[in-house]
Design goal:
Largest sheet: 3 strands, antiparallel
Structural class: mainly alpha
Strand content: under 5%
CATH class of the largest domain: Mainly Alpha
Order of helices and strands: HHHHHHEEEHHHHHH
CATH topology of the largest domain: hpI Integrase, Chain A
Number of helices: 12
Distance between the termini: 73 Å
Number of domains: 2
Length: about 290
Amino acid sequence: MIAQFIEFLRTEKKGKSFLSATSQDARDFFVYLKVHRQLKRISQAHRASALRSFYRFLRRRGFVTLSPCDTIGRLRVEKKLPQFLTSQEISRILETLKEKGREDSKDFKALRNWALLETLYASGMRVSEIASLKVRDVDFSKMMIRVRGKGGKERLVPFNEASKEALLSYLKVRSAVFPESPFLFLNHRGNPLTPRGIRKIVDNSTLLAGIEGKKVFPHIFRHSFATHFLSGGGELRVIQEALGHSSLSTTQMYTHLDWDKMRKVYDSTHPHAVKKVKKEDDTCNNGDCRS
């Protein structure tokens, strides 16, 4: 990077020495990088940081008294919006896995994959968190999962009826095949799934569902959970707790969508939970509702 700046001074500034470079020279250099090299903002920021460090070193050694970077503010890097799947794409993947699991009630892998992705989407967990889950962490009576997050912090996250159905179907087979392991999601050898193994499952599940033209990775289920929850009216503070964010500012990246009046009840916001409520409403409308 330093060599780039020296070359810029030689070709664009008539051979000026880097020891006599000015703040204007540094500004012109970053304009040059943007226009002629078409560098992204984050790459420019990295180069600016390197140049500052270089001139701090020169100043400490007495080679320069002023740094051309002194009057240049830090380049702000634009944060990328999180990628997410539409609710239709999520449903397509999960329904495909559900059908696959129901084809054979003893198919360990099919039932595990269904339960895994239903739980990923229902809870918004990180891949490392779901990989370390143990059977005892799932409380079916309270519909909550105890999660161990970053820094060993524990939190409780809810899950819905769709993931409950998938988990119970999977655990019935898993308990018969690998009764000794305390971990929830296992590979075919009875060892805990690794993040790499989970990524492979996501890749295969995406292909099976026929999702094309979009890069799907395990963390996208976390982004999709948060995006759909908020767009359905969920509170930002609730999603912060569910995701395990220490700062609300981190959670605010999901507010790139317009969302209606906020509601606190999980079952009224999460797409897969809404299905159950809608079904009950339809039953009442058909005259079969009992008080």
